[in-house]
Amino acid sequence: MVTKSEAAKSKNRSLFINIIVITLFASLMAVFIVRLNTSEVNFEAQMLRQLALKLEESAVTAHWKWQSEGRPVRILLTHYDRQGNEVGRTPVLMSHEGWPEVSPSEQGCKTLWNALLTVPMMVNGFNVRGEYFRGELVDDEAVNARCRFSLSAGDYFDYFVFRGDVVPENEQ
User: Fold this and answer.
1) Which residues pair with 78 in a beta bridge?
2) Which of these, 26, 56, 73, 96, could form a disulfide with 166 (CB 3.0-4.6 Å)?
3) Residue 107: enclosing H or E segment and its boundaries?
């Protein structure tokens, strides 16, 4: 026969085990939730970074082509796919400093994108915004003017008009 004391101990032990199991389960669930949320890859940001690298590469290519052709006002930039096949040519208006010209407007940034990348301003179904920022004026010239290409999620990169370089958001 089971005494009241043994029944109480058994009940307390059972309650204690249940509390431990529930606590352990809740802790594991919390770890899995945190792990799943932090390890999610932001594909749009990665794709935007790849486009930023390609835009900078095209700007540098345009600069050197401008140099090699005797610094003309306009060059014809040839685009290739990954296999090295020509996929198109775009005329690019060049500035007096040898970088692709950008008219100071949102449309100027869109024109730059189309000339250097030849792909729609979209990343994984999301529109890319092109905004022009004049920056500081030195002798009536916008020395740090830039086009900012961004996604609605907040990811962006800047193309500096007079330097021809691209700076991602995490290097600003």
Assistant:
1) 89
2) 56
3) helix 106-117
